[in-house]
Specification:
Blueprint: H1 2-16, H2 25-35, H3 39-51, H4 57-69, H5 73-86, H6 91-101, H7 115-124, H8 129-152, H9 156-188, E1 192-195, E2 199-203, E3 212-217, E4 221-228, E5 231-235, E6 241-245, E7 249-251
Antiparallel strand pairs: 1-4, 1-7, 2-3, 4-5, 5-6
Helix pairs in contact: 1-8, 2-3, 3-4, 4-5, 5-6, 8-9
C-alpha cells in the first residue's frame, strides 16, 4: 500500500505540473503586439514560447487568435486544439475553434461514436487535466484516511459506516484517476495532427511518384497511423487514409 501511495503521488504531481509554468514577459509583449494589430509579430512570439516548452491555455488560445487573424487556419486550429486539450470546458476556446473549422475547405464528415464513448468524453472534457489530477490525489488520500478510521473503529456500526465511506471514496478515486489518465494520454499521445498546407495531394504510398488518392486541405484534424521517413500515413475523420509529407502537418 505504501508503494502504491508513493507511486500515485509521483505520477499525479509529476503530470499536473505541465500547466504550472509561469509565462515570461515575452507573452505580455506578444499580447501588446496583438493589441496593436501586429498579428504576424505576435504570432511569431507566441510560437517561439510554445517551442520553448511553455504550456498554458492562454498562450495557445492567443496564438490561435493571431494565426486566425493572419488567415492561417491550419495553425489557428492547431493552437486552439492545444488550448482545448488543457482547458476543454472553456467556452471561448471552443467557440473560436468552431469558427475556425467553419473556414476549412471540404471538411470531411466525422464517423459518429457510440453513445457510451460520447458520454465518457463529455464527462472527461468538462474539466481540465489539473482538476482530475488534483481530485484523484485528494480522493486517494481521503480513502486511506477513511480506511484507517475503519481499521481503528471500536464498534461494528462505526466499522460498517467507515468501510462503506472508504469503498465509495476509493471507487471515486479510480473513476477520477481514469479520467485524468485519459486526458493526459490525449495530450501526450502525439498521434493526431493538423494539416497546415493549403492543399495536399494524398498519396497511396510514401513516395512522391505514388498514385494520387484525394485532396486534403488546410485545417483537417487527422490521426497518424504510421511513419516512413519524412512521410506520414494519416487517417481522416471519415476513415480515408493517405500518405503525406511531414512538413504538411503539425503534430498535436
Amino acid at each position: 500500500m505504501k508503494n502504491i501511495l508513493i507511486l500515485s503521488i509521483i505520477i499525479l504531481t509529476g503530470n499536473i505540473t505541465f500547466s504550472q509554468n509561469n509565462l515570461p514577459e515575452q507573452f505580455i509583449d506578444a499580447d501588446k503586439l496583438y493589441a496593436e494589430g501586429k498579428f504576424d509579430k505576435a504570432a511569431e512570439k507566441y510560437e517561439k514560447l510554445a517551442a520553448e516548452g511553455y504550456m498554458s491555455p492562454e498562450l495557445f488560445f492567443n496564438a490561435g487568435n493571431a494565426f486566425y487573424r493572419l488567415n492561417k487556419i491550419g495553425k489557428a486550429i492547431y493552437y486552439y486544439e492545444k488550448a482545448r486539450m488543457l482547458n476543454p470546458g472553456d467556452e471561448d476556446i471552443n467557440y473560436n475553434l468552431e469558427m475556425a473549422r467553419l473556414r476549412v475547405k471540404n471538411l470531411p464528415p466525422e464517423v459518429p461514436e457510440i453513445f457510451p464513448v460520447r458520454m465518457f468524453k463529455k464527462i472527461v472534457d468538462a474539466k481540465s487535466p489539473d482538476f482530475w489530477g488534483i481530485l484523484s490525489l485528494s480522493l486517494f488520500i481521503l480513502s486511506l484516511i477513511l480506511f484507517f478510521l475503519y481499521y481503528t473503529a471500536k464498534t461494528s456500526g462505526n466499522k460498517k459506516i467507515r468501510f462503506s465511506a472508504s469503498a465509495v471514496t476509493l471507487f471515486l478515486f479510480i473513476l477520477s484517476f481514469t479520467f485524468f489518465q485519459y486526458r493526459m494520454s490525449e495530450i501526450n499521445s502525439r498521434d493526431k495532427a493538423v494539416t497546415i498546407s493549403s492543399e495536399i495531394t494524398g498519396k497511396s504510398s510514401p513516395d512522391a511518384s505514388a498514385g494520387d488518392l484525394f485532396k486534403i486541405y488546410e485545417g483537417y484534424i487527422v490521426k497518424i497511423e504510421s511513419k516512413n521517413g519524412d512521410w506520414y500515413e494519416i487517417k481522416l475523420s471519415d476513415g480515408r487514409k493517405a500518405w503525406v509529407k511531414k512538413d504538411d502537418l503539425m503534430i498535436l
